[in-house]
Amino acid sequence: MQAPAVPAVQQQQQHCPISVTSSGSRFTTPAVVQAFRLSSSCFFHSSSSSLRILRSRADQPLRRALSIPHHRIEAMASGQHAPISESAAWADLKQHVKTIEGTHLRNLMQDNNRCEELIKEYDGIVVDLSRQRVIHDTVDKLLNLAEEAKLKEKIDQMFDGVHINETENRSVLHAALRAPRDEVINCDGQNVVPAVWDVLDKIDAFSDQIRSGSWLGSTGKPLTDVVAIGIGGSFLGPLFVHTAMQTEPGCAQAAKGRRLRFLANVDPIDVARALLDLNQETTLVVIVSKTFTTAETMLNARTVRTWITSALGVEAVSKHMVAVSTNLKLVKEFGIDPANAFGFWDWVGGRYSVCSAVGVLPLALQYGFSHVKKFLQGAWSIDDHFRSAPLESNLPVLLGLMSVWNVSFLGCPARAILPYCQALAKLAPHIQQVSMESNGKGVSLDGVPLPFGTGEIDFGEPGTNGQHSFYQLIHQGRVIPCDFIGIIKSQQSVYLKGEQVSNHDELMCNFFAQADALAYGKTREELVAEKVPEALIPHKMFSGNRQSLSILLPNLTPYTVGQLLALYEHRVAVQGWIWGINSFDQWGVELGKSLAGKVRTQMNAARTKTQPLSGFNYSTTTLLTRYLQGKTQLLYPDPHDVFPSNVLPGFEK
Ligand SMILES: O=P(O)(O)OC[C@H]1O[C@](O)(CO)[C@@H](O)[C@@H]1O
């Protein structure tokens, strides 16, 4: 039998005699290699003498033996950090995977002490982590990883207004948006809380004027309908909260006679849908854009402005259009009175902006400010917990660590968000942006390519709808860690005579059943005992051992919606901090945007001057040509100011 090949690095370790002397210490191979490797985390993060050794000429055999590239050593010397995957805590968890692979949730769930330890509670929220593939040691090791990543320091830095969004040189202070009036949160030496409350007070007064009818449209009618134009973070968060509040009895009562619509997509179909059956005279338009430059939002804003002015005249803009932005200069240039603009700050990331005027204004217009204030209070309850609770009982921290465990160690790149509550139908799309735009990164904060994947693929649907859709794959196909979210007291109650349980209880029976079905599965023995025909047994077997976690809320009110939001926001940040990435920038969305600009220029030239396309590859040229040759509803070069009325009801010339 042939001897197994010795890896190159190992050969170097075996054959290359290394002797490095520094500060009176003598290092020899293989002990030195081993020691350096084992203590890699502290070595990488702090040991300047180790770095000196590695940078010196004499270190070269050691450098080769450790297989540390030259650029990495220079990077470390200039203050860059090694990826967390090179730390001892990470290696320990990698090792620990083997232990976990020898367990099954069916057995782990028998251990009541373990389960008790993994069920956490804070301010009415119960988080059950017992169906995660973890044992006591796993949590300890994950907490070591958190320490290695300096998680507590990162949390403190966020609340202290440090510019942790380094690539944009900004603080990350969305928590300040929901801070009580008397809280002090500094950014660049200034307490931002008073400025936050100035805007909230302005929204309170303005929304009250609109809702009470003391602010009237240009023809003297009350403004009962609101169209909020915005995309991405300027849309998904507000839509999530609106959907969650819509059926809550107090909110529904407060919204009587009012409509709130969102217009996000630049697709004219979305314009038609958003404006369907609306009357310009009774409609208030809120343009929501942090930058006020987003192409889709600005075209939609111009389109809807045309819809308003074509019916009511240019003067109507001051009564029918307001804006939310950090770019008040562009708001003014668009023609909106600065008095009708609601500002926020560059330390609020778009996907974290629902608690700024981005969400608060449209929601206050629909439900009244008092309800929205409770939503902010709920979010702050979690903020306060996040910044002060010890890591081992800190809900967002534990949730984040479980996700890192699943993604980076158990090899599960996706996560399903499964609220058993129709009012949370827009939670998954919102968290999809919060999570995937934040953590879908390829390089560390230092700009070094990461040797592991970050982020996860988030998707979800409310139960039980999802059960009749993609759960098949979750039960018998791929392993997708699931978040089950249940509500104790439903927003609506229905209990029919003669039924075994109320409608909400029926829903929740599924919530409880699914988590155990995934954890336990179904064995061959059980199927045999049920006398299932042999040929069907493989098809009816469930491997089980599929991890999930459950979040149980006492009810779904504005307050708990706020809690849920903050829980997810901070969980995503925790994951990013562990992975060592910047969760608060989003450079990855830029390339597509600029290429669309190139297509736009050529499309205009082709349509108006019949100029041939140039600079595109064969495939794009072929499809673009086919598109340009095809039938279109609109004629160039003779643009209409409005769309034909059959396409867009309300666009009558
Ligand atoms: O609010 P804005 O500036 O219009 O940006 C909208 C969205 O576009 C993005 O910049 C990128 O898609 C998001 O981060 C942001 O929420």
Automatic annotation (TrEMBL):
EC number: 5.3.1.9
One biological process term in Gene Ontology: gluconeogenesis
Pathway assigned in UniProt: Carbohydrate degradation; glycolysis; D-glyceraldehyde 3-phosphate and glycerone phosphate from D-glucose: step 2/4
Alphabetized UniProt keyword annotations: Cytoplasm, Gluconeogenesis, Glycolysis, Isomerase
Subcellular location: Cytoplasm
A GO-annotated cellular component: cytoplasm
Chief location of this protein within or outside the cell: cytoplasm
Superkingdom in the source lineage: Eukaryota
GO molecular function: carbohydrate derivative binding; glucose-6-phosphate isomerase activity
Assembly mode: Homodimer.
Membership in a protein family: Belongs to the GPI family.
UniProt name for this protein: Glucose-6-phosphate isomerase
Organism of origin: Marchantia polymorpha
Phylogenetic classification of the source organism: Eukaryota, Viridiplantae, Streptophyta, Embryophyta, Marchantiophyta
Gene that this sequence comes from: GPI
